[in-house]
Amino acid sequence: MGSYISIAYLLFFLPITVFVYIVMPKKVKPFVLLTASVVFAYLISNFYIAYLVITTVSVYVAALLMEKSKQKCRDALPAAENREEKKAIKRRYASKQRLIVVLVIILNIGILSVLKYSQFFVTNINSIIRLFDSGYKIPLPKFAACIGISFYTLQAVSYVHDVYKDKIKADKNFGRLALFMSFFPIIMEGPICRYSDTAMALWEGKRIDYKNFTFGLQRIAFGIMKKVVAADRLNIIVTAIFREFEYRNFDGGIVFLGAVLYTIELYMEFSGTIDVVIGTAEIFGIKIPENFRQPFFSKSITEFWQRWHITLGTWFRDYIFYPVTMSKGMKKLTKTCRKKLGRDYGPMPASIIAFFCVWACNGLWHGAGWEFIMFGMYHFVLISLGSLILPLSNKVLPRLHIDRNKLPYRIFTILRTCILVCLGEMLFNARGAKEAIKMVKVLFTKFTFKSFFNGSIFTIGMDRFDYIVLLCMVAIVFAVGLMKEKGISPREWLAGKHIVLRWSVYLGMLLVIILFGAYGTGYIPINPIYANF
Amino acid sequence: MKKLKFEKQTIKKAVASVVFVLLAIGMIVLLSLFFNEERLETQTLKDVKPYSVLAEPDNTLDAVIFGDSEAFAAFSPVEMYNKYGFTSFVCASASQYITLTESFVRETLEHQKPKVIFLETNAIFRKMNSTKPLESAIDAQFPVFPYHNLWKNFDPLNINENENDYCFRDDLKGFKYTAIVNKSDNKDYMKKTKEKQKIPATNTSYVYSIYEYCQEKGVELVFVSAPSTVHWNYAKHNTIAALAKKLGVKFIDLNLEDDIGINWNTDTCDRGDHVNYYGATKVSAFFGKYVHNKFDLPDHRNDSAYSDWNQLKAKYDVVTGKKANKT
After folding, report:
1. With 60 as the cut, is the pLDDT of residue B48 above it?
2. Domain map of chain B by residue range?
3. Does residue B157 have a pLDDT over 80?
4. Phi and psi of B67, rounded to 5°?
5. Which of A49, A448, A513, B43 is the most exposed place for a label (fewest CB within 10 A)?
């Protein structure tokens, strides 16, 4: 089973799990989900599931040890004779807890780093060695990782960190924690859940009700439509543009088209899969955090990252950005800078350092390669520039009589953000950093719309019909996004309509998937892009 | 009373669900009446090359080559026809699974009586999902799934104006032309070994099924391996050689034929995964000669019934850049 959008998952795994879940008594329901999750993890990762077990056991034990230490501290405090002694006791236990949390984070991030980054690390060391002509080469390590390791490792870190910070209590129920770590809809591509939001609901064993069931199925159908009709259709042309760029002499127009189409493909694939994930959880009455909130309505790159892969963004905010900005050194820096640079620019040096940490990690999280670091740095520069320019633009725009809230300005900022995002995704999907730089060069030195007018764009993997289907699909997703932006839930809205309209829409979705889906002979479905991260 | 109301609601929802499912199945059945093989025979999709074998007039092909992208990249029926006069077709698609190959063999042999069919061996090793046989069964029951792309034929507004229309016979006869050069550094890929690479169990049953169907139809089956430094090796060669011996079929491994003269610096478009046009020209010259010598296929070059084949050369030269396109 390589994907949620597969016959194996949609016709076998999910229906069987739902059936067993329905027939089992309430107390057994969580165990049904846990068993299904373990089976699913085994099916996608085979025996590499052992890494998931190590992570789960390690955070379970570490959290309990911290909890025990906290309890001991609470027990010891009444015996203290004065404030100094109380402080000393707190310090003693806090340092022990800190040691536990640091060790368990090092263990889990260490596993992730070794499995994911050791090859990249060794390749770079070999490049340096080559400079000295020694002829020595370190053999490349080869490791296979558990699918979804980048997702569940972040969940594990957030769990122990939150226990350490007293935001949540350590869970004594190993089954519940294991289910939170391995819940089958989220294990492959996220969203990255927080224990406080999800774990209890998962273990509750809620009854499947009609509304959740039908709403879940509708969301799954919409996700399949995005993936099969749009993302898989784009796979051929995007692969052709990015993989054959080097030797097909494409002009800048085609490169730009590739950047735009890849961005659409990535969004349709990732958000489509997340729709299937959230729809699946919804069937079981479990609310999973949203990962997308109409990202292409963003007016700035900062806003884009608040709407795109939201759970990753909030993870980096809570576990990297805040700890860095709130550290003693950064607080001191901010204080000093405030005196010298004023209120507007004073906090910026600390923020920029924190942004750098966040975006270096974000780039590396997406993959081990310089192109990913470049992708992270691209966004770091854009966001930092945005922060630096904001106070200035706040002063300049009113003087130029430009109203930020007026529609033309909003459209301008949305388009600007979309173009910047597309360029970032182009760097992300290029075959290495060198190729990315070449593409940027072609984009700016050989830009022409000639290929659009002479019909070349219809010969790379999509004909005119494919473009029409793609545009219709983008229009549908845009319309749904617009409804959500206006605070209307499309499914709730539709549920209130006459049965003829409702069923026409549902059957229409099925019709679109069957007829306009890019599946079967001549198409190669795109692999789950984010499952490899 | 409350319980009764609850039960009524539950029954209503259950009935509604059943009716909806039935409607959905009805829609699929209805669509299958419009999207199926019968429509395909007269209206063939250009972008789904293998299907265009069905657009060839009945009993006009002397040989058919089945397989995945390795096949459509390496064999050019027009080159072989121009040199030896036998008609052939490459019925292949990218990443083709052996289940699909089997259904293509069956569909093709319903309409054609070739003397020999060639099975390019790369697809035999392609691992399938466990649900692939089920998918094939669903495709057989509901043709709308494999033939859904026929919607592109309904083009009243002539949207694809600059493309040739979709109701066409493939002038390249299944061959895919590309002149891109992207060299391979892995030239030493056929290192001798006694090892064998395992064929996935379900795949073997499909190969047997193809073999039995050919026997039934009186068509000779031959295994052929197209040159590929990425997908082929000696362990695979050993496996196919053993299978060929077991079934009593011929096997020609073009990866071991030095006489072809493949130059991996110039004859591949993607670092050795597939040969490009220059490689295909060499492969087709060698393979055409082999087929001509071994199978005694007729020469149609002076046969007026095959005048359309005789006109292909000019079109082929335009596509391959040998001649400028005057239109």
Report:
1. no
2. 51-125+154-319
3. no
4. 155, -160
5. A448
| Predicted confidence (pLDDT) at residue A67 exceeds the cutoff of 80 | yes
How many domains is chain A built from?
Answer: 3
- DSSP classification of residue B258: G
For residue A474, is it within any domain? yes
Structure tokens at A161: 């960190």
**B268 close contact with A: CB closer than 8 A:** no
Locate the chain A residue with the closest alpha carbon to B149.
Answer: A515
Q: Is residue A329 part of a domain?
A: yes
Q: Mean pLDDT over all residues of chain B?
A: 85
What residues make up the domain containing A418? 297-423
Q: Which residues of A fall within a CB distance of 8 Å from B130? A: 8
Q: What is the mean pLDDT of residues B249-266?
A: 94
Is residue A507 within 8 A of residue B23, CB to CB? The reply is yes
Report residue A458's pLDDT band, with 50, 70 and 90 as the boundaries. confident
Return left, alpha or beta for A205; rule: phi > 0 is left, psi -120 to 50 is alpha, else beta.
Answer: left
What is the share, in percent, of chain A residues with pLDDT greater than 90?
A: 52
Q: Is the ipTM of this complex over 0.95?
A: no
A448: left (phi over 0), alpha (psi -120 to 50) or beta: beta
Q: In A, which residues are within 8 Å of B100 by CB distance?
A: 521
**Domain B51-125+154-319, CATH homologous superfamily name and number:** SGNH hydrolase (3.40.50.1110)
Q: Is the omega angle on the peptide bond into residue A323 within 30 degrees of 0, that is, cis?
A: no
A307 and A254 both lie in a single domain: no
Please report residues of B whose CB lies closer than 8 A to that of A247: 180-182
Whether the Cβ atoms of residue A164 and residue A66 lie closer than 8 Å to each other: yes
- Selection from A43-57, A386-400, B122-136, B280-294 with the highest mean pLDDT: B280-294
Best of A215, A521, A523, A527 to disrupt the B interface by mutation (most B CBs within 10 Å)? A521
Residue B35 to chain A, least CA–CA distance (Å): 9
Q: Examine residue A1 and state whether it is found in any structural domain, yes or no.
A: no
Of A153, A172, A207, the last residue of a domain is A207
In chain A, positions 165-224, which contact chain B (CB-CB < 8 Å)? 210
Q: Which of A423, A444, A466 is the last residue of a domain?
A: A423
Name the amino acid, one letter, at A254: I
| Residues A81 and A195 occupy one common structural domain | yes
Percentage of chain B beyond pLDDT 70 is 87
Are residue A410 and residue A467 in the same domain, yes or no?
no
Using a CB-CB distance cutoff of 8 angstroms, which residues of chain B are in contact with residue A243? Answer: 270
Q: Give the tens place of pLDDT for each residue, A465-475.
A: 889 999 999 99
In eight-state DSSP terms, residue B117 is E
Nearest to B23 among A246, A507, A519 (CB): A507
Does A521 contact B28 at a Cβ distance shorter than 8 Å?
no
The candidate with the shortest Cα–Cα distance to A109, out of A309, A377, A365, is A365
pLDDT, tens digit (0-9, with 9 covering 90-100), for A294-342: 999 999 999 999 999 999 999 999 999 988 888 888 888 888 888 887 7
